Structures are given as structure tokens and as C-alpha cells.
Amino acid sequence: RTHPETGKQGVYVCAGFTKHIEGIDDEESERLLGVLYKQSQIPEYQCRFKWEVGSVAFWDNAAVQHYASADYFPHTRVVERVTICGEKPYY
Questions:
Q1: Distance CA 57, CA 50 (A)
Q2: Which of 17, 32, 46, 70 has the most CB atoms around it within 10 Å of its CB?
Q3: What is the spatial distance between Cα 60 and Cα 64, in angstroms, rounded to a whole number?
Q4: Closest Cα to residue 57, out of 86, 87, 82?
Q5: Bridge partner residues of 9 (DSSP)
Q6: pLDDT band at 38 (very low <50, low <70, confident <90, very high)
Q7: What confidence tens digit (pLDDT) does each residue in 55-72 have?
Q8: How far apart are the first and last CA of the chain?
Q9: Contacts of 4 (CB under 8 A, 6+ apart)
């Protein structure tokens, strides 16, 4: 898909949802997805947000993967989801 601001082509994947990359054969798709899934587990490619009172975090689901670590016990966290209308994806 094309990023609406940069115009660059990208492949956005999520291990829980992505099963195949269109336009390449099954073997190459499986190999490339494996590489991308492993890349996402490398700490140098991750952002860790340190929550403080009044913190707000947001991200672009079209460009990142996210995972909420449950490491704030015994505190609780209030989550409000906001979806912003955007452009229809194009390639």
C-alpha cells in the first residue's frame, strides 16, 4: 500500500492477521513474512512508552504494530479508543 503522506510503498503486516503477501509466490511470501515478524521482535525497532500521570499515547495503525504490555500492576489503565477518518488505502 502507498503511505498517504510520504508516497512510499510499504508492506504492513501483523502476525495475527496477515497470511500471504499478494503478488509473490507462497514460498517467498512465507519467507518474507517470517523475516518481518522476527524484525518486529527486535528491541531496537520498538518504542517503549513510559506511562506517567496525564500521559497520552497515539499511533497510526496503518504504519505500526502495537502490543500493550500488562506491566503496570497494581495500577490500572484507562483506555479510550479514537478512530480518525482517513483516506481510502491505495496502491
A1: 10
A2: 32
A3: 6
A4: 82
A5: 2
A6: very high
A7: 888 887 767 777 777 777
A8: 4
A9: 86, 87
For residues 3 and 87, give the distance between their C-alpha atoms in angstroms, rounded to a whole number: 10
Residue type, 2: T
CB 87 within 8 Å of CB 2? no
Query: Which cell numbers hold the place of 76?
Result: 490500572
3-state secondary structure of 29: helix
Q: What is the pTM of this model?
A: 0.65
- For cell 528491541, name the residue: 43
Backbone φ and ψ of 35, nearest 5°: -65, -45
- Rounded CA-CA distance 61/76 in Å is 24
* Residue 2 backbone dihedrals phi, psi, to 5 degrees: -95, 130
- Give the single-character DSSP code of 43: G
| DSSP code at position 28 | H
